[in-house]
Every structure is written in C-alpha cells, then in structure tokens.
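FORM 7B: Structural annotation worksheet

SECTION A. Query
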Amino acid sequence: MQLQDLSALYETKTDDELFQLLADLKQLTPDAQMALKAEISKRRIQTAPRQAIEIEPKKPQPDAPTYPEQNCPEQASFLPLTTGNLLSEAARIQRRHWRAFAPFAMPAFFGLGICVCFQFAIDIGFPLVIAKRIRPPLLYLVFAVLSLTTYFIAWVGIHLSYAMICSGVTRITGAGRAAFRQCFTQVYRRKGTFLLLCALLYLITLMLETAATLLSRLFSWTCRQLDMPSSARIEALVWFALPVLAGLILTRFALAVPAVIRGGRRTAAALFLSDELTEGKWLLLAAVYFKAAFAAGVVVFLAAWLATIIRTRVEWLFWIGSALKIFLCVPVFMMSFVEFALLYIRTAERRDVRLPDV
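SECTION B. Predicted structure
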C-alpha cells in the first residue's frame, strides 16, 4: 500500500487500535511506520505509558484550516472552557467547513423522512385497512410497535449524523479533513456498540418523557382537586417545563456518542464517561440545549407559516409543511452536534481521558 493509503487507513482507527499497532511497530513496513507515527503525532497521543517512541515533529499542512486569532485549531484547547469560547469555536468550525458537514446530514434527513411517510400513511386511512383484519386491542399494540420502530429509525439516523460529525470535528481540530467516507467508515467499524448506545439512549429518552408526562398529569389532577386559582396557567407552565427539564437531563449523556466513536469506549463506559465529563457544566449544557430548542421552535413556526401561504391543494400542505420543517430543523441539529463534539474533545483533553487497557 502507498503512504497516502496507509495514512487514510490509520485515520479511521481508534486510539486503542493505534496503540495495538504501535506495540508491533517493528513488524510494519517503513511506510507503515511513518504513517503510524504521523497519525499519532497528529492526534497528540501520549505514548510514553505504552511504548517509548520518537515521533517526528508534525509538518505544517497546506490545506490545514487557519484562524485569524490563532495559528492552528489545536491552540483553542488552551483557552478557558467557557460557554462563549465553546460556542464561538463551534460556530467558526461550522462556518469554515459547512461544505464538508453538509453530506453528514443525509442520515438525519432519511430517518425523519421515514417518520413523515408513516404519519402520512396514518392520515390517509392506513389504520382503517388494518382494523378490518386485527381486533382493537391488538390493533393498538401493532400501532404502538410501528410508531416506536419508526421513531427509533429516525433516532438512529439523527445519531448517525451526530457520530459522523464527531469524527469530522476531531479530524478538523487535529488539522485534518472531514471526509465523508472516512468518517462513515469509522462509525461503521463501531456499528454494534453504536446501535446499542442508540437503543439505550432511546430507552432513557422514553423513560424521561414518560416520567415528565405522568408528573404533569399528577400535578393537573392535584390542582383540580384543590381548586387552585389560576391553575390553568400553572398547569400549562408545568406541562411545558417538565419535558424541557427532561431534555436538559438527557444532555448529560450527549457525550456518550463521541466517547464510543472517537474514544473506543463500550456502551456503559461511554455513558458513565459522558456523565463524568459533563459534571458541573449545567450552564454550558443549558446554553447549547436552549439555543437549539429556541432555533428549532422558530424554524418550525416559520415552516408552518410558509406552508400556509403557499397556494396549493390541501392534501399537499402536509408534505410541504413536513419537508420545510425537516429541511430547516436538521441544520439546527447539526450545529448542536458540532458543539457537543467539540465539548467532548475539550473536556477530554482537560481531564486527560485515555482509553482503558484491553
């Protein structure tokens, strides 16, 4: 294999896999040794605990992104980890590399499109067709399973886009390029752990949303029993606040995806690591979460308004409105994914997080 092919191959490997190759360094060809040393130097991995190795100084790359304020993206890791620094660095990365990130949105578009098609099938009378063959008790179970399955497909599609962005942001901060094929290959190599993590996060989300709904109903019932004045406004506030609080709690596990893709962690270890890295960072998490929630609310309202002013047949309004919502909401998700990926990189650097010995 040529040196360029070897460099592309090592870019798709996790840190732990690079350490395994480093243990058998003498068995590699000279080109493979050079490509391995260059990749370890680019990631700034500390190799002393594993094996003493002299790494050649990294040569400047002509296509590496530069910043007006600093010579290279890595220098941003020495800035204080504040909300303003994180959001500004994420915005700068996305602004400079939006063309590279654009293909990463395809899985999210695909998953959300399946949800739209399923909802449209329900609206056109698909339940009536099934109801002729299935009795009502079983019918409810069938539609519950279909709905959960459809939403899970969308959930996996969104997280696949997130995982690819995590790989791309790591390459960019290491003065590399966010190539779609390489990022997808890296996620595919961890497909088993990734799908299990998606399932666990989906289950946690359902549990949090169910708990928020039950607490809201309990509060509404209590207000009606006690005849509290202005209970309608208070109930509306509680029904809005509890799901938002559940979403904020869920952000504590947002760094589990980069921990699996870039850190090589297993599912449970990734969840615990995410909770550890986000400990005491409620203000930063709230800033990222509420910024995305506000932007998503604005674009959903804008999409609904645009769908109403477009002169078309009534049956096309659903498709137009849904397409506009997806088209406008996915970029909002992508911005948040860049921010969470960058948060993982910066917090892992400061905590000196390393892969466990295998």
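SECTION C. Observations
The radius of gyration is 24 Å. The chain has two domains: 3-43, 97-351.

SECTION D. Sign-off
Analyst initials: ____
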